[in-house]
Amino acid sequence: MNSVILIGDDRLLLSSLEKISFKNCIGMNRINNSLALEFIEGRVYFDYNEDISKDYELYEIECIPINNPKFISLTYSSKSVLKKVLLQISRFDNLIIDDDMGNIVSYNEYISQI
Asked: In what order do the strands lie in the sheet with 96-98?
């Protein structure tokens, strides 16, 4: 399993993600601060943890163009499932992706790379 971090504004919440009708999703399960989605080709897990922001250096936080950013970890079993899910959450304005490899990029830039 691999993961990325979704960075967004106050609308980036598990409850907002839970309201999306993910195409070809065969199962959704919400437990506390986690949301699991199951697809035929794999799974994704959204995890909200306020402490994620503590993993960032001050200069990294300062370069995020969002006031009071929210962080959600997105763990995925395959790139195809990741892309499928990301394409369906494009409604979140100014979404930023931390690819967990040292790059913090815009949603559009990340989507074009996978």
From this structure: 25-31, 34-39, 42-48, 70-76, 2-8, 96-98, 104-106
